[in-house]
Amino acid sequence: MRCYYTLDGENTIRVHASRRDARRTGGGWFSTAEQFAGLIGPDDGRLVEIYNRLPGVRPVTKFASRKLAMERIFKVIQGLGGRPASRGVVEIDLDDGGFDGFEYLN
């Protein structure tokens, strides 16, 4: 099952069961690392911040390339196992200084 993600200004990532559900949020959505890059924009500091808050990663101060950063972040996000149930939403809150698990929203 393909997942669709949304990212807000608070660095909260939500996993949606369908593209339609992700679009309904009114925010930016992505399902690929390339689309994620488009949402982040030119702020490489935000990439480091998001990456360092993901579980199980070794903190970095910078990335060798923007492409590498996107690939690493997206790989971790996909591996978190937050597959939403049909019509469900999983929230991954990265803004509080660490990963606390998933919050299932309906």
Separation, N- and C-terminal Cα atoms: 19 Å
The whole-number mean of residue pLDDT values reads 78
Number of strands: 5
Describe the largest sheet. Answer: 5 strands, antiparallel
Instruction: Tell me the count of domains.
Output: 1
Poorly predicted parts: 100-106
What structural category arises from helix and sheet content? alpha+beta
- What's the arrangement of strands in the largest beta sheet? 3-1-2-4-5
Global morphology: globular
Number of helices: 4
Rg of Cα set:
13 Å
Helical coverage, percent range: 25-40%
What is the H/E string? EEHEHHHEE
Binned strand content: 15-25%
Structure write-up:
The chain is an alpha+beta fold. 35% of the residues lie in helices and 19% in strands. The chain is built from four helices and five strands, in the order E-E-H-E-H-H-H-E-E. The chain has a five-stranded antiparallel beta sheet with strand order 3-1-2-4-5. The two termini are 19 Å apart.
Overview features:
106 residues, alpha+beta, 5-stranded antiparallel β-sheet, 4 helices, disordered C terminus
